[in-house]
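3.2 Worked example (two chains)
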Amino acid sequence: MEILIYFALIIILPIWASSRVKRTYKKYSKVQTTANMTGAEVAERILHENGIYDVTVRPGKGFLSDHYNPKTKEIVLSPDNYHGMSVAGAAVAAHEVGHAIQDAESYAFLRLRHKLVPVANLGSNFSFILILAGILLGSMQFMLGGIIFFAAAVLFQFVTLPVEFDASSRAMNQMVSTGLIRNEEEPHAKKVLNAAALTYVAAALVALLELLRFILMFIGMNGDD
């Protein structure tokens, strides 16, 4: 019964978080801001208000594919957010600018996350191979190695949380202080940002649950010996 609850959690949590983001975004993508500015204009306005002129804003492809690339100094907004004038688009654009501001200020958690990227990628790629080999071969060494690699990927997930929450906080502060949204629009923007943050929380929780499962498996193997 416990194993069924476990698998239900790791399957349902991400689906629920993703569904909530899509519902919230869809709802507030139909609400136009009183500032009548596109997501691209919102991003550029906040960048310039913070004295950042070396970051470009360009349209991307796909649905909610918005991101900030610190290597190329680009904010990439999905087409609807780049061209649209919705509260949802403004919130998403401001959030990505939040990352650009973090980058400009050398925000500690952002720097740490960048350093962890190669370690996290390595952990994601090799941990399951080592863990599976450990299970099939009954090797404690392989199992432990896989757990260590996977723990690095989990650490990356949890370091991502303060980065994302801080970017959302900066986004709200910037939108309010620059007059890009008004009082009645603030709750709408917060709901969009909070829903997006849930996807990162869900991913971190699922990763932690997986890590705990592997640790319990390792302890069980050790006990069998």
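3.2.1 Second chain
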Amino acid sequence: MSVNLIFKIAAVGILVSILNQVLKHSGREEQAFLASLAGLLLVLGWILPYIYELFQSMRQLFQI
């Protein structure tokens, strides 16, 4: 996992939290929820290959 990925995840987290607060204060709770969900799915899409690689490594480690 590279440091760039960590910085991208942190940037998305900061942007989503700011957007979430702005939308909540303007009375748009549904859009705030959707923005949070979109940020979560974006980050999950970035992390899934690393999770897959982890499980493949675990499978190879415990394979007889």
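3.3 Remarks
DSSP finds two helices and no strands in the chain.
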